Task: structure prediction
Amino acid sequence: MSGPAVAIEANDGLGDDPRPCFSCLPQVAALRSYHYKAQTQPDQQVCAQFGLDLVEGRVRNNVEEGVLEPAMSKIKMIQVGRVGRLVGAVWT
Result:
C-alpha cells in the first residue's frame, strides 16, 4: 500500500483520535482541479466523473470503476437540507 492509503486507514474516524486526516488533502486538491477543468473546458467533460478512492489514496474515474452516484436523490437531499435551514432560520 502507498503512504496516503495507510494514513487514511489509520485514522478512519472510529478510533480515539478525533483529529481529521490531513494526508488526503493533496488528493482532494487534485480532485477539485479535475472538476474545475470539467466545468471550464468543454473537451474535458470526462473529468466530471472523477472521484476519490480512499482505500488506494488516489483520484480515479468512478464510472470506469463502476461507482455511480444517484444524482437525483443527492440533489433532492441538498434541496431538503437547504429548505430545512431556511425554515429553521425563520422559526428561531
